[in-house]
Every structure is written in structure tokens, then in C-alpha cells.
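Slide 14.
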Amino acid sequence: MDMDWKPPRSRRRNRTWILPLGAMGGLLILAFLVITLFRQPNTPQGSAAAQTPALTCSATTAEISTSDHDPGEKQGDTDSAPLQPDPVLTHEIASGDSLSAIFDRFEISQNTLCQIMAADESLLALDILRPGNLLTFTLDETRRLAKMELFIHPGKQVIYHRIDETSFDYEEVAIPGEWRQQVISDAIHGNFYNSAIASGLTDQEAVIITDLFKEQLNFGRDIRAGDRFQVVRNQQFVDDKFTGGSRIEGVRIIRRHRLHSAFLFEDGNYYDEKGESLARAFLRYPFKSRYRVSSHFNRTRRHPITRRIAPHNGVDFPMPVGTPIVATGDGRVTRVEKHPFAGRYVEISHGSQYTTRYLHLHRIYVKRGQAVQRGQRIALSGNSGRSTGPHLHFELHINDRPVNPLTAEIPTLVSIPKNKRQKFRERVAEIVAVMGEPEGKLAAR
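Slide 15: predicted structure.
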């Protein structure tokens, strides 16, 4: 290249910043400017991105990973299949998918994704997408998203439908289906967990059983080869398809000359054959100091920011950022997430019936799968996500339905009430009849 090159007269106004970089640097900068000026976003005309004002929803928080929520895992290739021309688009969730990439694939704007996530704030169904879940997108005549359906399993789906230019609402569809009873009985070889899995119980069911007897039985020390277990469970089916719904109705651990039992009663708690509760008492509040309630449980509450009618599935407690938050009962952590509107939050499963959630946290001290005890510090309160100020949003769910945590019946260390003991004995007799009597003379405990 001729190093004595000089720009044409019409471009000499740029000489002050091109020439000091050298001729090659000047050409590179000019090429960069041309690419920047003429590059157009890959958004179809009339899409929601061109019509909807931007929301406060960052790209990182909108990208919810569906591969066990591991931010370090490589995302899958969502561009392998061509865009479907139909007004109804479908996508089956695969390992490594992200909502952000799926929306890009179908040329649905990220603003629309933020609107969907805002509607999902009180439900949080999109944080637990799993491979096999199905998403269906319905577009209007301008190819703007009008409705998105999430098929979780044959018995449950969530429909997000547009209500105006900037927002969506949701509807849960639950099909009761048919519950089928099954008895699982086997000997213990090696350890209880492996034996339970080998017999057909799921990982979650094995954990629930272990947690039920943790106060009276050390599974690592007390169990011997040849001990047995009996489990009665109900599984949900819709049109002969298993939904994944499962409920443990009764358990007996038979070891040498001692019998340990647990039976689920109508109040959602487990009791031994004498009617004594196996669950430790719950705490009513997830903190040790006293804080006022700024927003009560209300299924028809008007949202303080959007001003739209939206269910408030928990209770809000204003408190300084950094206030210690504790688990209200023994259980296992099932979610540790960061949602663009719910903020950082933790979900804990307390057996098969109870679940608690703690939202808008500042710092989290537990991990998914970790066992926690009642009163254990799990996080610090904060102001993350969409919030009007520092506070804790606390939820209690019974049988997958949100209830008022300040008034709901929660497990206590009491026995079956006298007026329900006969009904409980009848329930125990039904389950025992299904199990069959254990061999030998056993002492119940």
C-alpha cells in the first residue's frame, strides 16, 4: 500500500481522527461505520418490538435457563429448525433451551417476553420449565403474540393471553384426571434410598419418606439388610397418561422387631398409627423480629405498580435490606432463582403437601436440593425484582394452591383431635388392608 496516500478533498474534514491512526486504521474505522449505519435489526414489520414501549426487564434476567438453571451451561442451538409460517407455532422444550432464544427464533420481541414474565410474577410457572414441556404461540394478523400456552403435563397448563398493547394475563387450567392407587413393597439391600429407587419410587418420594422418619430413625445406622418397606401411593392420570402427580398415602418401615409408620390424613399432615404427628411445628413467620404487613393475601388485589387486578398470593412485610430470613419448617430447597420481577427467591418443599416461597431477597444462603430445618437462616431480605421498596414477600402453598400464610392451618406437634380419631382409625385400617400385615410380631413406634 502506498504510504503517501491522502484522502480526497471532500473527506479531509475527517483527517484529524483518521490520519493519526494510519491508513489501515482509517479504512477499518470507515468499514465499521458503514456496517453500523446500514445494519438493521432482524425484526419483521409490524412486530410487537416496533409497537410496544420498552419495559424494565434486562436481557439477562429474561433468559431463564431450562437446564436445571445452570448459568454456566452452554445453551442449545434453537436455530436448527426453520421458522414456522403458521399463526400457531409450537416448541417442545429441550435441554439447554432458554425463553429468550425461543422468542428470537419465532421473531417475537424481547419486550413481549418481558410482558409475559411480568404476568408470570405471581405464578412463577416459567421458572421450572423442563424438557418435554410444550409451548404454543398464537399470533394475530400482524404476527404479534396474542396468546402463549404452556403445557406442563396432561393435567396442567397455563395460558398467557394479551389484554392490551403492553400486558398479558394468565389462566391456570387443571384437569383432576384419575388417581390410581399402587402398593410398593420390597426388602432393603444396601441402603433404603437405592432400594426405594430400584423398587420404582421416585427420587422425590424416597426423600419424602426419609424426611418423614428422620426424628425417630437414622437410615444410615438403624437400617439392616433384610429390613422391609411398604408404600401406598396415588398417581394422577389424564386420558391414561401419567401427569407426574404423585401422593404418598402411607408408609411402613419394618426393621427386625420394630415398626415405623406414617399415614396421610385429610389435614395434609402425616401421623403414626397412634395418631401422633410426625411433622415438627411450622413457624408462622419467616423472621424473628416483628414487622407490620403492608399487603395482605388477596386473590383480587390491584397491583401497586401496574394498577391492574392481579392475584397477590402471599403477604408482604416491609423490612430493612439485610434482615435475616428463616425457613418456617423442615424441608428441602426446590428452587433458587432470579426472576426479572419476583427478584431473587427461594422455594422450599415441606413434604408432599406444603411449599413456602420467599421473594425479593438480597442474598441467598442455600442451594437447590439442600435440606433445611425450621428456623434455619436461608437468606437476607432485599429489594430485588419489581418492588415498591425493601420488603419480603412470603407465600404458603398447600397441595400446589396458594393460601393465606397468616391464617392457614399449619402442622403442629399435636395429635389427631378427639372428634376425628375414629375417622383417622378407619383411614389407617384402609391403608393397612391394602399393604397387608407384616410378618412376625412387631412393636410399633
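Speaker note: The two ends are 93 Å apart (CA to CA).
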